[in-house]
Structures
1.
Amino acid sequence: MYRTERRQKYDTSGFSGQRCLLNSRVQRTQFLHMGRTAFGAHDAAFEAAKERLNTLKEEPDNNVKLQIYALFKQATKGPCNTPKPGAFDFVGRAKWQAWSGLGDISQDEAQKQYIDIINGLAGEESPAETEQAGEEASSYKEIKVTKENKVCSILLNRPAKKNAITWLMYNEIVQALDDASKDDSVTVAVITGAGDYYCSGNDLGNFMNIDPKDMPKMARDGKELLRRFVTAFIDFPKPLIGAVNGPAVGVSVTVLGLFDAVYATDKATFHTPFTELGQSAEGCSSYVFPKLMGNTKANEMLLFNKKLTAHEACERGLVTEVLPHDSFQKEVQTRVEYVAQLPPQSVREGKKLVRDQEREDLHKANEKECEVLEGRWLSEECVRAIMSFFTKKARL
Ligand SMILES: CCCCC/C=C/CC(=O)SCCNC(=O)CCNC(=O)[C@H](O)C(C)(C)COP(=O)(O)OP(=O)(O)OC[C@H]1O[C@@H](n2cnc3c(N)ncnc32)[C@H](O)[C@@H]1OP(=O)(O)O
């Protein structure tokens, strides 16, 4: 109820801030027509995504429309090459800002993000892309899992919601990691995000629309789910690589401390706004981050909500290497392919040696963090912080 009302308010609000409403029939036709007239776009998956754009059951909201528009222009024309429209051309200006905001990402990269967003919205993979993806398309709803050349790729696939993690997505990620750990054809797993975000952390909607009398049960269930989720990362026996393709928030940042390598694009940021949300650290970060970066630097993130650039995260040991945004996919692919062809048993035993040193401490930290969070989710501070997030959205 709350969120629907918010959307109605938003959709009739017309022009507000960075966002505009492509609400006239002409603009909408232009928007849909645009999907059909890409110039020189050769990729079959791109063509399929363009077609799919016109079959979406639900029209995307304005923010996503601008993102799709900008990625389409970047994919077909390259970096923004038109003059900034006049101050009163609100729609033209918002579109110009969206396109120029993509900077100099390559046409390939833009095509890929375009395809991911549209397939995410359509909720399935284009047949062409399924083929291209290799052996196994995912049977999941909010992530996309593909296995090819010994690599299991797990794509967080809710681009319209910045890949925020719902109850379902937590379970799907646990399932995908468990499946990859048992599949002998897989020697390495990679996690990355669809669209321009890696992941915006816990979906704050997880705690909304819950009858107050059911809150204690929600908190208990959430505690158990989080404990299982983090355990899946602690005990994953094969190399686990993070490909942080954009901003990362909350639990998607903290569990990176349990990965074996983390590659970040130079546009990625790392933010754990726990105390702003009346919450507390999770993902074993209360144990791993002080070890990685020292107490005061860890507190800067976990207590004082400092957002790190990719280079700062690399200096603190959370990121292995920062790579240029427009060659990020290719660079990560090279590193992953190298790991994939290493003698798998040797790699697994090497990983076990390292992980066994602190496995017990990690499980202890996870248990403790989940216990504290169970209380936090029931606190006035947390409820108020989450409500204000959605109230702020409603005002836009
Ligand atoms: C089992 C339970 C385990 C719990 C474990 C606990 C974990 C702790 C955490 O993870 S704390 C961190 C939680 N995450 C956040 O606080 C981030 C909230 N989101 C934002 O601040 C912003 O959305 C942003 C900075 C990530 C992106 O801002 P931007 O303006 O670029 O984009 P929008 O805000 O318009 O986002 C697009 C739509 O996506 C929705 N959305 C984004 N993030 C979340 C989220 N975490 N939860 C729910 N919804 C999210 C946003 O509301 C927009 O939706 P709309 O188009 O319907 O308005």
2.
Amino acid sequence: MTSFASPLVRSASIKQDVVIRNTVNFHRSIWGDQFLMYEERKDREWEEQLANELKEEVRKMLIITTQHRKLLELIDAVQRLGVAYHFEKEIEECLNHIYVSYGHGDLWIKDNDLQGTSLWFRLLRQQGFNVSSGIFNKYKNNDGSFMESVKDDVQGMLSLNEAAYMRVEGEQVLDEALAFTTYHLANILENHTSLIEAQIHQALQQPLRKRLPRLEALRYIPIYQQEASHNEALLKLAKLDFTLLQDLHRKELSQISKWWKDLDVSRNLPYVRDRIVEGYFWILAVYFEPQHSDARIFLMKACNLVIILDDTYDNYGTYEELEILTEAIQRWSMSCLDMLPEYMKLIYKELLDVYKEAEDLLEKKGQTYRCYYTKEMVKEYARNLLIEAKWVNERYTPTVEEHMSVTLVTCAYAMIIAKCYVHRDDLVTEETFKWVSTYPPLVKASCLILRLMDDVATHKEEQERNHVASSVECYMKQYGVTEEHTHELFTKQVEDEWKVINKESLRPTDVPRPLLMPPINLTRVCDVLYRRGDDYNHAGKEMINHIKSLLVNPLSG
Ligand SMILES: CC(C)=CCC/C(C)=C/CC/C(C)=C/COP(=O)(O)OP(=O)(O)O
């Protein structure tokens, strides 16, 4: 029942007030309508048939390769080329066999093969096996420094550099290995020009641990092709699979562009950012596989509604209007529609419709609990956005602790992680939703990384308008430190949070390991979007190239 103090009863009086709103001029979409239309590939059927034949060849290779060093190289190539999702069972069996054969590490090391040892360590850690980093002490002198011979082994250093990014808190040997290899690899860069130099350059820009699987496939296909020992069937499969996926992704983007156009956001809600294509890049980073197509479509709708809500709370809505919207979202009922200001009706109706559509699908499978938990997180999100609006309204700068308790929710990642599981068919149970909604360490680390990287990248622009103080401003004010110092501290904290993610990815995990990939991939997106600035709102040259190569240009070669 409506309480007397409910903000819903105040909506009528608001209409008569002169309303002063923030104005933010987000530039229009740089992509125009180019993704609206989609034409199916003519050759799709026979290409799928060929891909199936190639898959069987690669599967056989995974089964018959018995030499462990060679098997690791094959698995690494399969993973980097972006086709590992076809062979999850085989890869798990192979790596489990290798883990059982060598235990935590001592049995693996036979010679001074730093490259092989690092590869062994990285692949097993990536698969969740807690192998010991102590193995790398064998490459150190008695005084604790790395041996001179390590410096001369460029491939070994590159492999160790990538492996060290699997570090967890307290692994000093990996911290040191990272500093050592980063320093010496950077020195090499100044002296040579070759394929290995290109690889070093890319590794130093972004380690494999933080790269998005689709972009890594694009990057690695030409490198693998140049390797004398490459396998022709695997290379062909990687190229064909990329093309088939690109076709499916274009189809989905066309579908979602039509949905957005039908909402007519640019006319009905002109203050909202139009970033459908950049948003699809974000979602594609979470899931790219064909079996997650329904999940992607739902995520696109639900996440673009998050953007609409974010812009409404951050920029356009008055505090009184936002109170009403928040209350209506808590009640989640079409009966609240009439109480809302006109422009908010479209937002509210679409929000309820998108979840109703999901619920109808889930009902048939007895999985409506998935919508229940996710809706509760949307309600929590709205309540916390309202707290931010209150701070802005009262010109209040919160303490860092207050700020984080609210903005870890409004960064939206925990809610988006829950959304990733709504239409996922395998492994998800009610426990999965209970897990994510309590902000366990991995989810919290992912939220923190987004919050810190987003704020470092966007706080200057946000402060030019009447935006809530970012974590950067709060920290500077509370501790009386400079912006530069704050950026440095936050960058260090991001690395520490990655250690938490690595630790939480080791077996036994809280939820089945494949369910950790959406939060891990969401964390990786931060490194792509916010490392150089704000590539979501203002896609730079590199981001535009990423989108074009994933969604527009045919794969070359
Ligand atoms: C499909 C799609 C749209 C995906 C986006 C994923 C998503 C909703 C991320 C939530 C965080 C967010 C709103 C970031 C950008 O806005 P901001 O920098 O204004 O965020 P802030 O207001 O929290 O600082």
